[in-house]
Amino acid sequence: MSNSTRCAACKSLRRRCSEDCALAPYFPANNPQRFACVHRIYGASNVTKILEQLPIHARATTVDSMTFEASSRIQDPVYGCTQIIFKLQRQIVHAQYEIAKVQAELALHSAQHQMQQQNHTTNYQDQNQYYQAAFEQEEFHFDQ
Ligand SMILES: [Zn+2]
């Protein structure tokens, strides 16, 4: 690559960008902020070492996650992206609690509904027995 088309990494490091520059595919010249962010946290040589140890198909995802981690670390020097992870974990725990609560309420309502159905059936059976008894008494009464 000529100097006019150097990748953002080589441009930032003021070096020539070779044809086989390991960083060029992931740090295009039109997004210098992406490299600046990763370079600030990891350092260019560490980023290059990490990428060279990985198969090519995993490198783009690696650079995406490093960029996310680095920008989170710059925004929040204490917690970095773990702050986001903790927040999401709390949301998951809260959502699981809500699900368990709703499932318990559903189970309770289902049990109450079944009991009402049984009571209704029992009342109906009691009523039938009552009418049958009354009818039998009537019959008995007629016989007298
Ligand atoms: Zn380069």
From TrEMBL:
Family classification: Belongs to the LOB domain-containing protein family.
Superkingdom as given in the UniProt entry: Eukaryota
Species in which this protein is naturally found: Rhododendron griersonianum
Residues of the LOB domain: 5-106
Pfam families reported in the protein's UniProt record: LOB
InterPro entries: LOB (IPR004883)
Name under which the protein is recorded: LOB domain-containing protein
